[in-house]
Predict the structure.
Amino acid sequence: MNHVSQHLRTALQLAERGLPALPLREGKLPFGNCAACTRSACGDRPHMLSAGPCECPAPCHAWGAATTDPDILTSPAWAAAWRQAQAVAYHPGGAALTVVDLDNPEAVAWARQALPATKTVATTRGEHWVYLGTMTSHNGVRPGVDIKSLMSYARWLGPGTGRMQLLPDVVRALAVKEPAAARPTSCAAAVPPLAMDGVCRHRSPAYLERGIAMAEQQITDARSAIHNTVYRTFLAVLSAHGWCGCLTETHIGRLFTAAQAKGESLRHCEIAWANARMKLGM
């Protein structure tokens, strides 16, 4: 059996078990986007995140290409990728899993002391500890420790050993950091003048607080089209509060935290924020 059929057979077996699979090229990397999708020309909306997903049949969008559909995995559009594939990966978050990637013996030793025992998979340099449950993915939460769940992929290295446990709070806590410092909303664009008495036109800090709380709730309540919801919410907040100097880095951090809790990466948050500012001419 050649490597093409081996990798494809593995992917089909993962799909049968409910693990969204995708091919990896040399360097354990996903395949780059096709010409139609490169540089986000298609809107860069992976199938699992948008009501208007990219319709590209190729294995584009990295982890967003992972699928349990055997017809897609065996389609002609994926054939070239399987011919070049060097490994198979899966999207843990798409299977309601979280992988704690321990990249060296020191990280493994730490996990054995600090984390509840669960299913483990041997890797080239360390171990994958697999828990049942999802969270946002984060790299470098500790030296040699990455968390792979939503919007990420993990290399398939076998079923592992041990009994899988529920994702514990101690793992979730590894990803809790101070909100990322976002750029203030002040800019060189013309700012609407304040009221004659020098008071913000919102009259009361409670107005801003309600606006931020409503925006957080709108993001939290989103069940689909997460990218679009985050962008529209950022746009609404900036439109209502971005011109008068009310917004602080703390407010922006709250919005970014809500978006990251829904699986958005910090990079996607920053892009959405920048695009909303550009749309408003800020």
In short: The longest strand covers residues 97-102. Residues 47-53, 178-199 have pLDDT under 50 and may be disordered.
